[in-house]
What we know:
Number of strands: 4
Number of helices: 3
Largest sheet: 4 strands, antiparallel
Distance between the termini: 12 Å
Order of helices and strands: HEEHHEE
Amino acid sequence: MTSPKVNGDRDKLTDMLTNIIDNSIKFTPEGGTITVSIEEEEKYLHLIVKDTGIGIPKEKIPKLFQRFYQIDATEKRKYGGTGLGLYICKKIVEAHNGYVWIESEGKGQGTEVHIQLPKSTTIN
């Protein structure tokens, strides 16, 4: 049995996934966990990066993919970053006709990043 594939720019998809995992590492304290899983759906591969990190207040989630957005200035100083990473990730996923969204129950509750990419229709 062959595993499903996606058509896309390998370098851009690698950059996107690296950024998502880097964020999980950056915002998960020592002793926490990060899980990466892939679920096959009818038309998509659904990647999920789940961590037990600091979490995100629900009211902030809709703004996370805006260019230069940081949750707050103190977090930016503590963790660094420009506020471009998730914006760029979203643009990469959208360029591949996919979807990306974030779920978190709030501060201290961890975060899940969901990425759906269309499965390849090419048979190899």
